[in-house]
Amino acid sequence: MNIKIKKILLKKNKSKIVCLTSYSKVIAKILDNYCDLVLVGDSMANVLYGFKNTHKITLTNIIEHAISVKKGLKKTILIVDMPKGSYSNISTAKKNAKLIIKKTKCDAVKIESNKKNYDIIKNLVKEKIPVMGHIGYTPQFTKKFKVEGSTLIESKRLLKEALHIEQAGAFSIVLECIHPDTSKLITSKLRIPTIGIGSSIHCDGQILVTDDMLGLSGFYPKFVKKYVNLNRIIEKAVKKYTRDVKLRKFPTINNFLNGTKRRKKNRI
């Protein structure tokens, strides 16, 4: 197993795991100083491409962004989402996971649970491809956005699902929009770390979409804490630039590539 992956496993019940998404080298370079895990998520479908859901994002899209992100990382573990349809069966999953690893040099892939694709995880792990699982609200398979695990029956089902994923060989698992009591139960029963999003403080780590927490995406469900409003900051900058252009304050002589030196006039 990858040494980096082993370090994540050792954080279980010891220290919180920090995870954020990235789709570019610029953001990845910043996250590399603070995150344990960086995820190239299929959330780029909504955040970057303006799709209503994650279903239309392609394997090529994911790989291209992951290549960019990898260039900005030196220390942090890189996880790449496998998009919808790219792991519909064992053969397809192996082929595409290997392609992702080869092209992006990432450390692991993430796949969402449809409550029956445990053999896919098992077979990827056999191929020495580390896998992160994902249960609860799974955008690739769940139509309605709601909290999972609010009843005893749902809680037992989710725990069973999580245990199957652990037994299949996943090194960690994302719990998305799962009731606090259920996420606490799952985290206490699993030997692998749980990474929560909208699933309470009881998880071993937390993940957010970076564009959400920076106030860029326009999507702010209750579980997102907006740490800054970059939309407002960017708008102010654009407004100032627009004014400077219209008032002929930009560009000035200092903005030319050759600096402030003027060409000497020819004398008669």
Structural overview:
- This protein has 268 residues and is α/β, with parallel strands linked by helices.
- It has a single domain, classed as TIM Barrel (Alpha-Beta Barrel).
- The chain contains ten helices and eight strands.
- Strands 1-2-3-4-5-6-7-8 form an eight-stranded parallel β-barrel, surrounded by six helices.
- α5 links the parallel β3 and β4.
- The longest helix has 17 residues.
- It is globular, with a radius of gyration of 22 Å.
- The model has no long low-confidence stretch (mean pLDDT 95).
CATH architectural designation: Alpha-Beta Barrel
Q: What overall form do the CA principal axes indicate?
A: globular
Number of helices: 10
Overall number of domains:
1
Spell the H/E element sequence: HEHEHHEHEHEHEHEEHH
- The rounded distance between the terminal residues' Cα atoms is 78 Å
How helical, in percent, are the residues?
25-40%
List the helices and strands and how they pair.
Elements (H helix, E strand, L loop, with lengths): L2 H8 L6 E5 L3 H7 L5 E4 L3 H4 L11 H13 L5 E5 L8 H15 L3 E3 L7 H9 L4 E6 L15 H17 L3 E5 L3 H10 L4 E4 L7 E4 L1 H4 L16 H17 L22
Parallel strand pairs: 1-2, 1-8, 2-3, 3-4, 4-5, 5-6, 6-7, 7-8
Helix pairs in contact: 2-4, 4-5, 5-6, 6-7, 7-8
Provide a brief overview of the structure:
The protein is built from 10 helices and 8 strands. It has helices spanning 3-10, 25-31, 44-47, 59-71, 90-104, 118-126, 152-168, 180-189, 210-213, 230-246; strands at residues 17-21, 37-40, 77-81, 108-110, 131-136, 172-176, 194-197, 205-208.
